[in-house]
Structure formats: structure tokens, C-alpha cells
Specification:
four-stranded antiparallel beta sheet, binds 2-succinylbenzoate, Enolase-like, domain 1, binds magnesium ion, 375 residues
Amino acid sequence: MVIEEIRLDRLEMPLKHPFETSFGKLMKRDFVVVSATSDGITGYGESTAFPLPFYNEESTETVLYILKELIIPQVLKMEKLEHPEDLDQIFQSVKGHRMAKAALEGAVWDLYCKRKGVSLSKALGGTKTEIDVGVSIGIEPTIEELLDRVGSCIDQGYKKIKVKIKPGFDVKPMEAIRERFGMDVPLMADANSAYTLQDVEILKQLDPLKLMMIEQPLAYDDIIDHATLQKELSTPICLDESIHSVEDARKAVEIGATKIINIKVGRVGGLAEAKKIHDYCQSMNIPVWCGGMLESGIGRAHNIAITSLSNFSIPGDTSPSDRYWDQDITDPEVEFYKPGVIKVPEGPGVGYGLNVQAFHDYVVHTDTFTRTKTV
Ligand SMILES: O=C(O)CCC(=O)c1ccccc1C(=O)O
Ligand SMILES: [Mg+2]
């Protein structure tokens, strides 16, 4: 196929509730949607970078810069793009910037699948027809408010409850959840890199709570200290921020830094790399699950497709649209078809259409790039 047009729409979507992590508080989502068109068919991808580089090094502005200046001009010159993996030649010319690459790669996967008339799930080798989902709960102002939110999520049927922690809001709130809701709730904590090895005594106090895992307790770029910490903890460590590629996954698993991996399509540079990590982890008996980045329905749809692969055996953070949005930009929105379960769509591509009206209501800026005709 030949891609004739690529569009970058920057959107601002207000969150229903502020979302607080150990690195800060988000009130709205500011992100980029990539549209790629060939023969009148358009595929969509979503950038998961935040406006500021507080989760990883990328930001909305760096995504726009890398796509506009370095990647899109090369893609619009490609003579032959038979498969999304052909983008790799171009991607190799830019180190890092994985969220920028993933946003474009996602649009090309959707386009490729729509042209072939197959679902993205099938094209990736997915086998599940439905996926179990969990919820990620931000840091709440008080333990009481956290308990209310956890209770409501349990009532809604979420299959995993993840709670954000930070120094000063860790052992007490997690103990309070266990006391109120019991030891059977599938419960985990995510620290977003807020601790160091100095904090091992605090983290050890979580062990009796039998959490499913603790996500990224130490630095965003570390695996060595995580391996040291894992030797001290009975709670399994799950890496998020530190894993950017299948090579990172291999090294982290080999040194014992992680027993479970959170795969985020954007963080690892796209669906092709996400699948490689999934396959490697499967061969090593390491379970994986799909993380979230407060995506709109477009990013959620990609997450649902990759989660249909068999080693995504732990419920991910792909909650329905109404967890975050009054009005999402897909039609239909992402919904439970029974509590805690989302159906994997069977239609071509991501299987969710665009709600054009809602989409345009959130757009704040558009750039369009077209192929220069060659004779
Ligand atoms: O999209 C979701 O529901 C997951 C939310 C979440 O946990 C998160 C949100 C923003 C930044 C980082 C993370 C994370 O998983 O670490
Ligand atoms: Mg995380």
C-alpha cells in the first residue's frame, strides 16, 4: 500500500475525575491522534505521551516534533509498505521516541487490517474473544475516599484493583483495603518509581498483604536495584517504566528484576514490539498484562486487540470509556458486556469507529501531510 496522507490532530479531553500518581496530578488528557489514509481508507493511532515528561522522557511536543520532522516525511516517500513492520527501517533512524513511533505504527496497523478486512486482534495472533479488565485507582485525598472508590470498583466487577502509592501513602491505605474488603480481592500497588533501596523496610511491610504484585517501585530507568529488591520481598515485582523492548525484558527477567511485565504499546514503540515481549515472556513463563495511559477509545481499542493474545493472563488497566470520559471519541464507546469483561471486536481494524462529532469537539490543532506526487 501507499500512504497518501497523514494527519496529526492534537486533542484535549477533560478527565471526569483528576488522576493523581506519585509524579503528579492530571486534570485533562492532551494527546495526539494520528490518521493514515490510503485508497480512501483511514487507520487511527493514539500517542500515549503526557504533556510533560514526568512518566518517561517523551511529551506531547516531542511526539509532534519527531513525527512531523523525522518520521512522516520518510513514510510519505516509501514506495512499498506491505506490512506495518516495514516501518522498522524508518524507525531505526531515530533512537528512542517510542511513543511517537507507536502512534504512527498503530494507525498503520489499523489501516493495514481494514484494507485486508481482518480484525487487529486476528492480525496480531490474538486468540481470546473477550478480555478480563482491572482498574487503576489514583492517589485519593484520604483513605476513606480511597476505600469508597475501591468498593465501587469491586461492585462494578473489575477483576483487578490497582492502587497508586507513594511515600507517606502506602502501607496504611493498602492495609485499610485488606481490612475492609478481605484477602480475596485481586489487589496490587503501583509506585511509579517513588522509592529507593533505602525504603526496603517500608516495602517489606506490604508482604503480609499478599498483593498480586508491586509495580515499578524503584527508578524509571533501573533494573539492577529492582533485582536486589526482589530478593528482599515476597511480593512479586512487575516492571512498567523500565521496559522499552524485548531486549530490556530479557535482561530484566534474566537478572531477576521482574516476575511479571506490564506491557504498554506506546512505551515499547508499538504493537510489533509489544507482541515480541509477549512471546518472549510466554516462553519464560512470565505472565504479562496490558497497562493503560488514560487513553481515549482509540488507544483503548488497540490495547484490547493486543490483550487478546494468550499470555496476557492477568487483567489489564483497559477499563471502559466511562471510567475516564463523559464522552469518548469512538462509536461505540468501550463498554463492559458483562461486569469486568470486554468483548474483543471482530470487525476490520481496531473494530471501533470514530465518533466524528465528539472527535472534532476535542481537537485543538491539526496538521496535514500529503505525499508529493511522483511522475
Ligand atoms: O489508563 C489507565 O487506567 C492506567 C492508569 C495508570 O496506572 C497510569 C496512568 C498514568 C501514568 C502511568 C500509569 C501507570 O500505569 O503507571
Ligand atoms: Mg505503572
